[in-house]
Amino acid sequence: MNRADRLPLANFAVAITAFGIAAAMAMMQALSRASLELPFRSPKMYYLSVTAHGVLMALVFTTFFIMGFGYVVATRTLNRPIATPRLAWTGFWVALTGTALAAGAILSGHASVLYTFYPPLQAHPAFYIGAALLIVGSWCWCATTILTYRAWRREHPGVPAPLAMHGMLVTAILWLIATVGVAIEDLVLLIPWSLGLTKTIDPMLARMLFWYFGHPLVYFWLLPAYVVWYTIFPKVAGGKLFSDPLGRLVFILFLILSTPVGFHHEFMDPGIPAGWKFLHSMITMWILFPSFVTAFTITASMEVAGRARGATGWLDWLGKLPWRDPTFSSVALAMLLFGVGGIGGAINASYMLNSVVHNTAWIQAHFHLTVGSAVALTFMGTAYYLLPRLLGRELELGLLARVQPYLWFIGMALFSFSNHITGLMGMPRRVMEATYGGSPIAAQWKVLTGVSAVGGLFLFASAGFFVLVMLGTWLAGKRREPEPIEWAEPLHPVTATTTWLDRYGLWTIVAIVIVLIAYAVPLWQHLQMTTYGSPGFKPF
Amino acid sequence: MNVPLYEKIWMWAAVVIIVVFSLSVAIGYGASALQPPSHVETIDPGKVFGDPRFAQRGVTVTAGGATVVAVAMMFTFQPAEIRVPAGKPVTFRLTSIDVTHGFEIVGTNGNTMVVPGYISQFTTRFAPGEYLIVCNEYCGGGHHLMSAKLIAEATP
Question: Cβ of B139 under 8 Å from any chain A Cβ?
């Protein structure tokens, strides 16, 4: 093992541990929703486990995995050590301390506020302080990424940044812009209020700040997955990247468009005028564009790979691809599920259509296809690729690894199909069970909650296989000379004309200006209003 | 930037799709009767029952439709049974006395967050029948029990 690789490996270890715990929580929830009487099933346990699942999956697994992956990209594509190793390690320990604090508060039953932690539900202060530390730790990663890039840039003037580094740099900048909202919510509103220093809190101000952060959060998850799709996947498939400049454009578009859209999570909220919701809805539609481009570019790259493997017909290139390679199949299946999830996202963002699906099971079906598949399955495939190469060990339990992506696909297809339908039928999300005292309307959801539970079993088996493969490889994998980490070459060589997309300072300013257009006036209007605060409640 | 022809066609198709989506949303925003509940009005959540706007909970039927005044609280709605005339516009006015709740009339487009300190308001119509109302925002240990009933009565 290379000494410098301890840093990404430490981050991956936390990510995989969080994933394992969160997956176990999830199966219990899927069975509970189907009204199965399990031992230990109680509202307290259920809402505790939903909180733990959401926080550990969406915030801990993702953040630590992305930090680890970012360090791999920085050191391997720039071919230099990171500029600030001390800062990076400090960030790791700070984020881990924060995770331990928050997880302790959740698992001891003092923070069942779910991962959206909307006040005036009030968690133990350790939960909010832990969240703050996790964010500060992730900022250390952002700073390390940017400083490492700048050091490389000074040594390499005039050369376009490697595409993978371009993507991770955009991810870091996007995260810095996004976390301003949640940092203010956490440090200014929630922590003093939970400590009793302030008596009341404005729930709508907290919601606005949360969702300012909440939507770019999903692109913080998605962009590293896109980096894998653009820069590792075509090589694993056996071909080349179809278009490098379009990949660069895609990342820059996400930097500009991902933050000024938060009100599309708040269409059903009082206290926000309709015109601002409409504006955010309109901007959201354009986020579809970079993903449409990605769908074409990556599919074309797969065709390039299939043809390089000898395909000659219209569609036989699909059959030539390495479907038994778990990295390939993870990413390919993740993209397929994301196609459905993306279309669902356009529906959610459509201003009025949202009133039919808002806070129903449709929403959990949607984001299990996006973050739960496009991102999580891609990260699992990435772990199969990176871990043996970083550890200098062989991937163990290869059969489990080969089956695992397909199990995830089947499980997620069952889970998301059934929850999309029950959502359209009106079943709310985040409920322990949906029987409503034997209501005949709620009884119509019963069969599909069973289908959802079966999906949950497949997903749990898949998650278990993944964790076993990781443990087996890490602890007992046969030692060997590590294979190199290879980045996909573009079909056409990159020319210097594409470097206008490397002007990160300029694009950051453009992004901030659009954020100000979308948020400055409604926030100012909100602060002018006479509002009444709420004391904290702990009904869990 | 050198973009291959097929990808150019695809990108323009994507632009057309997005413009069509946006136009359909814009037409809805400008011309549809249903609007998301974007009412801006605040209230002291500690004094809801004493506030003249919420002192009387229930349904007021007028010639043109009806107004429903309701309060959400852990883990019930007040009133728990709402009778409104079918086919006529019904305006709902809601607030919460404790945490954030949801108010979703299952099988309709009636759906709003109910945030303490704020008054949610929206208008919709119902076909005759009995509807289930559920809380669709997590509000604590009894969240899954929080429901009410709406009966839309056919008027002569």
Answer: yes
**A189-211 pLDDT, tens digit each:** 999 999 999 999 999 999 999 99
- For tokens 């992956």, what's the residue? A69
Q: What residues form DSSP beta bridges with A270?
A: none
- Give how far the C-alpha of residue A375 lies from the chain's centroid of Cα atoms, to the nearest Å: 6
Retrieve residue A268's tokens: 């059903």
User: Rounded to 5 degrees, what angle do the CA atoms A156, A162, A168 make?
Assistant: 115
Q: Which pair of tokens denotes residue B51?
A: 């506030």
Helical segments of A232-243, H only: 233-237
- Phi then psi for residue B138, to 5 deg, are -55, 125
Strands B76-78, B111-114: pairing kind: unpaired
Q: Is A296 a catalytic residue?
A: no
Name, in order, each residue with C-beta under 8 angstroms of A470's C-beta and a sequence gap of 6 or more.
A16, A383, A387
Nearest 5°: phi and psi at B130?
Answer: -110, 135
Interface membership of A204 toward B (CB under 8 Å): yes
Rounded alpha-carbon distances, angstroms, from residue A540 to A105, B138, B142: 13, 11, 9
For residue B110, give the nearest of B95, B124, B121 by alpha carbon.
B124
Residue B101's beta-bridge partner residues?
B114
Residue A389 bears catalytic tag: no
A415 is annotated as an active-site residue: no
- Find the residue in A nearest to B134 (Cα): A428
| 3-state secondary structure (DSSP) of residue B108 | coil
Token couple for A264:
């599309």
pTM: 0.96
CA gap A84, B142 in Å, rounded: 49
* ipTM exceeds 0.90, yes or no: yes
Chain center to CA of A425 = 27
Chain A residues close to B46, C-beta within 8 Å: 532, 535
Please state the three-class secondary structure of A249-308 as a single string. HHHHHHHHHCCCCHHHHCCCCCCCCHHHHHHHHHHHHHCHHHHHHHHHHHHHHHHHHHHH
Task: Specify whether A366 is catalytic.
Answer: yes
**Do A351 and B36 count as a contact with CB atoms less than 8 A apart?**
yes
Question: Would you tell me how many other CB atoms lie within 10 Å of the CB of residue A339?
Answer: 13
Residue-level pLDDT at B54: 96
Q: Give phi and psi for A212, each to the nearest 5.
A: -60, -40
Note whether A176 and A204 are within 8 A (CB): no
Minimal Cα–Cα distance from B156 to chain A, Å?
Answer: 26
Decide: A294 and A250 in contact? Cβ < 8 Å: yes
Q: How far apart are CA B147 and CA B136, in angstroms?
A: 9
Query: What pLDDT was estimated at residue B105?
Result: 97
Answer whether residue B32 shows pLDDT above 80: no
Residue with tokens 């008027």: B155
Phi/psi of residue A240, nearest 5 degrees:
-130, 165
- 3 state DSSP class of B68: strand
Closest residue to B140, CB basis, from A434, A441, A539: A539
Find out whether B36 and B30 touch, Cβ atoms under 8 Å: no
CB-nearest partner of B22 from A282, A296, A441: A282
User: What phi and psi values does residue B149 have, to the nearest 5 degrees?
Assistant: -130, 140
A62 lies within 8 A of chain B by CB: no
Yes or no, beta carbons of B115 and A539 under 8 Å apart:
no
Q: Which amino acid is at A76?
A: R
In order of A14, A89, A312, A323, A339, the CA distances from A303 in angstroms are 36, 41, 10, 14, 18
- Residue identified by tokens 């700040």 is A209
